[in-house]
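sanity check this record:
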Amino acid sequence: MVSFKSLIALCSAALAVQAIPTNKHELARRHLSLTSSTTGTLNNMFYSLYMEDSSSSTTMTDYGATYSLTWGSDVVDVVAGVGWNPGSAQTITYNGTFSTTGNAYLSVYGWTTSPLVEYYIVESYGDYNPGSGSTVIGTVTSDGGTYDIYHLTRTNAPSILSSSSNFDQYWSIRTSNRVGGTVTTANHFNAWKALGLSMGTFNYQILATEGYESSGSSSITISSPTS
């Protein structure tokens, strides 16, 4: 099963923010502890946390270019990550840990508008391949691996624009899981374009952890770009 997200109805975040930094060392220690849906910017990096339902066991800790997430099965769907707003056809280098025994995945995740597109470049997933039940329409070889490409159409589904939108989903799913490395997003965007899958103006783009009716944890650091 593939889960879909709305970032329109955002709740107030429970934020624990340290004192305003006065030097680089204090800046590095500044962080947020997030327990409900929100977006924002910290240490020049965009962050996003979305939870479909409230959860007493889900917390995202954000340090800017690094975040950690723990989630429990009491949340229907959680998506958390840090990155850029807007995104771009950039090369992203990251490292970290990702652990789940259920339905969850680690990906470069984002949206474009005009046309409205939700996209995933999946690096690792748990016990469920999010492409299951869909047809592979192509492949792309990039950054030492092969990714299967999928195209789905969503009708009257929540999006970044409204609670009921029609839009396309583009997926590149790595055939061998990894956590850490380089993602050359332009290779995927060009492969999608060659298959007739057009993209629009970039909205946000994050290195995201998503968990759906599962539990797990992740700790991810983006080493470049970091602004």
